[in-house]
Write a structure and sequence with these properties.
Elements lengths: L5 E13 L9 E13 L2 E6 L9 E4 L5 E4 L1 E6 L12 H10 L2 E6 L11 H11 L6 E4 L1 E2 L8 H7 L4 E4 L13 H14 L2 E5 L3 H7 L8 H7 L9 H7 L2 H18 L2 E4 L8 H9 L4 E5 L1 H5 L21 H13 L4 E2 L31 H11 L4 H15 L16 E11 L18 E11 L2 E5 L2 E2 L13
Parallel strand pairs: 1-4, 6-7, 7-8, 9-10, 10-11, 11-12, 12-13, 13-14
Antiparallel strand pairs: 1-2, 2-3, 5-15, 15-16, 16-17, 17-18
Helix pairs in contact: 5-8
Length: 479
């Protein structure tokens, strides 16, 4: 059934207008003003004055204290279905997304089984997702040893780009690549015009640290952990993932980007030491971009309790001074966008009873909370709404070529959120729609609540109630 003709209006609407300069993260400016948004067939066809309501249109009006913002875009989400659906699934993840104001997300090629490294595996994932998604969902492909011949087929099938690891991914079915293997894949990626997103840690500095690496099998960790510092200390884990692992990985990717001309994006960046490398590479004209995550911008290593394995992720949450340098890099455009890296698991894998950071699974559940976490932290540092919408909406959409997402503008999809920026709340497990509720944000006091979410002009979330039928599309072949 087609979406009804709809007017969504409010006294505060975050509208986009063109800006001719800047990177993909800064091509639009935002103004907040009274407006009515006219939606036909799920697409914004006009933006008019507040009182301009054509005959025959349904009307949804935001309260005076709410701001109408574009639906968020999250390009780094591990849904894990099929194969590890007990960790997360399309239905639960996309409900959490809708409740958090996310109307479009891009699923990572792991930790599902099979991983999205062949066309056949992509179709297995599409079959699993069909009819389950409450928001629109796209897909990353993967680069692993020996699958260069699959990349063209995956690109034709509609993946938005390709992810690789430079270190063990944590799951054996998605092995990491070496420089030699990248030299085989990158000419093909350049020929395809494809984006390569990189988990930028290399194993050398981690091996030199003398501590087990992230996600290693428990028996290996146990065998190598004799004599190490207390594994329940967060400092023990932090020392196991030194900044040098990221710094050297970024040096490698810059070198290869210069050689092959491939578009490169650094995922979940955490090391402030590597920011000068990123700035220099971008200034030289390389097609290089980077993202960071809420946990790197909100938490600090000094404050993480020992045994609190819900904080474990790779790369790790680093020190307070590192965090503030990441905020500065967002402000000056060195880091382009903020994604959740929602990477949940069953709670038993977090080993809460033992609190063993070295053996626990590394990944943070946060898909529903990205907007309030970032708004709370950014507002405290003097950033305004326009920056938030750039980092969470328009920049992620442009990263993956979604020209109709991430903005309120004519020709864009009618993906809208009624947002109360001044409402405070405390994160409680029962309010989360992720399959598993364990998150480092539990008990945190945050600001900014999603009241309603619209996907292509249809209301999919309203104060804790979801639409009866999943309305999300599987986004393929738009490139």
């Amino acid at each position: 059934m087609p979406a009804p003709n709809l007017v969504v209006r409010g006294r505060k609407v975050a509208l986009s207008r063109a800006n001719k300069g800047g990177s993909f993260a800064a091509q639009r400016l935002t103004s907040i003003q009274p407006a009515s948004i006219h939606i036909v067939g799920g697409v914004i066809v006009a933006i008019a004055g507040f009182d301009d309501i054509p005959a025959g249109y349904q009307v949804e009006e935001a309260a005076d204290h709410e701001i109408i913002i574009p639906g968020l875009v999250d390009t780094h989400v591990h849904i894990n279905e099929p194969g590890r659906t007990e960790w997360e699934g399309f239905a639960s993840a996309t409900k959490a997304a809708a409740a958090g104001g996310v109307t479009t997300l891009i699923d990572m090629p792991l930790n599902s089984v099979p991983p999205t490294t062949t066309v056949a595996n992509l179709h297995a994932k599409l079959d699993a997702a069909a009819g389950q998604c409450f928001v629109d969902v796209g897909f990353w492909g993967g680069v692993v040893p020996g699958n260069t011949g699959e990349l063209a087929g995956l690109a034709t099938a509609g993946v938005v780009g390709f992810k690789c690891f430079l270190i063990h991914s944590g799951v054996d079915e998605f092995p990491n690549v070496t420089e030699t293997e990248l030299r085989l894949a990158m000419p093909e990626l350049t020929r395809l015009g494809a984006l390569l997103i990189v988990h930028a840690e290399v194993p050398g500095p981690i091996s030199k640290a003398g501590l087990p690496s992230c996600h290693r099998p428990a028996d290996e960790v146990a065998a190598s952990n004799d004599g190490y510092a207390d594994a329940s200390l967060y400092l023990t884990f932090l020392k196991s993932r030194p900044r040098a692992a990221e710094n050297e990985a970024i040096e490698l990717m810059i070198k290869l980007a210069r050689e092959f001309g491939t578009r490169i994006h650094i995922v979940h960046h955490s090391s402030a030491d590597a920011l000068p490398l990123l700035r220099e590479a971008r200034a030289s004209g390389l097609l290089l971009s980077a993202e960071t995550c809420p946990h790197y911008l909100y938490f600090a290593a000094e404050d993480i309790p020992n045994g609190a394995t819900e904080f474990k992720c790779c790369p790790p949450i680093r020190e307070r001074e590192n965090r503030e340098q990441l905020w500065a890099a967002l402000a000056d455009g060195t880091v382009d966008l903020i994604v959740s890296d929602h990477s949940p698991c069953t709670e038993d894998l977090k080993l809460k009873e033992s609190g063993n950071f070295l053996e626990a699974w590394g990944g943070i559940a946060s898909l529903q909370l990205r907007l309030p976490v970032i708004w709370t932290a950014a507002r405290a540092r003097g950033f305004g709404i326009e920056k938030i919408l750039e980092w969470l909406c328009s920049a992620p959409a442009r990263q993956v070529g979604l020209q109709r997402k991430g903005e309120i503008a004519v020709g864009c999809d009618g993906d809208l959120v009624f947002w109360h920026p001044d409402e405070h709340f405390q994160v409680q497990p029962q309010m989360l729609y992720h399959r598993h509720k364990l998150t480092p944000y539990g008990g945190e006091h945050l600001q900014g609540t999603v009241q309603k979410t619209f996907l292509r002009g249809r209301k999919i979330y309203d104060g804790g109630t979801f639409s009866s039928d999943p309305e999300g599309l599987l986004l393929l072949g738009w490139q």
